[in-house]
Amino acid sequence: MELTTDVTNLWSEGDLNKFRRMTLIWGATVLLLLPILASLGYFMRMFQSNFFPHMRPEWFYAVLTLHSLGMVGTWFVGGMAGVSYLLTQYTHPSLAISKLNYWGTLVGVLLLVACTLGGLFGTGWYFLFPLPLYSQGVWQPWATVTFFVALAVLGLCWTIWTLDLLRAIAQRYSLKAALGLNYLLGKPGPDVPPLVLISTVSLIVSFAGFVAAVIVIVLFGVDALGYAIDPLLMKNLTFFFGHILVNITMYLGVAMVYELLPSYAGRPWKTNRVVAIAWDAVLFLILFAFFHHLYMDFAQPRWVQTFGQICSYFLAVPAGVVSIFGCLALVYASKMKWTLASVLFFLGIMGWGVGGIAAVIDSTVEVNFHFHNTLWVPAHFHTYYLMGVVLIILGFIDHLGLEVSKLQESPPRTKAIITLLLLGGYGFLSMFYWAGAHSIPRRYAVYPNELAQGTLYARVAFGFITVLLCGILLYLWETGKRCIKAFSA
Ligand code: HEM
């Protein structure tokens, strides 16, 4: 089967330059947000360490809401911007839509800052029904309205972005080909780079997630008008959306690694039958794995819980195992060029593995019975976020900055950055895991006397976060220089 467009005709040099500059702007924005949002996490661990005994706990929850939504959103757009740029080698995503998303995302972020820091809106990142509508006077109705307007703006922009990337892929490959159906059926067809396959799977799934989010927002409105809404339906829809958004962000990062790591290893990493089966299976399994968030909801039908556990287990095999072993096989005995970017890619994939194992443990009903709503939960998703996709996106930004600026990298500073990020990151996470395994609940602003260990773990974590922040600042210094030079090139 022929491809629908010749790749050499896709871009003029000038247009490609503009797209690269837009990607650098996205990268710089992500780099700016990282220390701000990480400092909010630092603040929360200080709060839990009892460093601010006179501050109202409402501040903790407002900061929790901003930190969590800010982080989830930042790495999603970081992943989308990176994948869009890499897709320019094969397809023609719209620059105008990337710009629209940039401004839309900024508006959404400002609205979120206003309702959380200005209005103390503090439902946490998944604003579980009906909490936003019952503030008990902690926040005012304007803060709730502002929050939903922010979600609507972000949701609309990101849906348009998702559809545009799918449009670009379909124009060149057709969606069937992009999903690697010819590999599955053993039929002749175009070569589909893993980047295209994984992006297609991720974008289709994110579209489904955004549709669920729209339904949730509309149902909130219906409830506000006085019509009763089923809370279990709302919880299912909310977790369907939330689980998908988090997983898709990771997959966007993985897609970038499939595309870029081979250039450092000097070997190809191509789509084959196993890779196609793995990622197409994700398309199905991810739609049902979210049920593991509702194990403690006794009203949920039992078969749903069983099916949720089976899908959660199987979800780890196709994407996780195939990609982690693929990554190890790519690097093993190769003439690997280890740079800041390639080390971050490699560590990011391994961090995904570590967080994934902790997630699978928690998705086992029997274990979840003990770990549900303990700090084990933030432990596992912070692992595959912070030590997974965040490292990959930081690697991508450095890769791009270095490629365009042609600056030399300093090996001692690279080693220092990696050491600080690993020590600080895993040290900080180990306190979440340790506390979770000792039944310390999540989302407590301060721990009561019965849970005094929680305060101690928070203090230890505070020390590790200090190390992590030093690593982040050194990274920003190094990569920031490259990005500034790249931007003016
Ligand atoms: C950079 C270092 C980070 C620090 C110091 C940090 C710290 C924290 C802390 C202390 C909490 C509250 C945990 C609790 O007691 O329940 C939290 C929650 C959260 N963080 Fe982070 N975090 C960091 C990075 C990230 C990243 C990269 C993400 C990625 C999206 C993220 C997403 C979240 C989310 C979604 C929550 C809400 C958890 C919940 O609702 O239980 N954080 N973070």
Describe the structure.
This protein is an all-alpha fold. It has a single domain, classed as Up-down Bundle (Cytochrome C Oxidase, Chain A). It contains 15 helices and no strands. It has helices at about 15-50, 55-85, 95-120, 140-175, 175-180, 180-185, 195-225, 230-265, 275-290, 300-330, 340-360, 365-370, 375-405, 410-435, 450-489. It is globular, with a radius of gyration of 22 Å. About 45% of the residues are buried. The model has no long low-confidence stretch (mean pLDDT about 95). The structure holds protoporphyrin IX containing FE.
CATH architectural label:
Up-down Bundle
* Bound heterogens, unique: protoporphyrin IX containing FE
For the termini, the CA-CA separation is 40 Å
The number of domains is: 1
Q: Supply Rg.
A: 22 Å
Number of strands: 0
Give a quick account of the main beta sheet: strands, pairing sense, barrel closure.
none
Low-confidence stretches: none
Along the chain, the helix and strand elements come as HHHHHHHHHHHHHHH
The top-level CATH class is Mainly Alpha
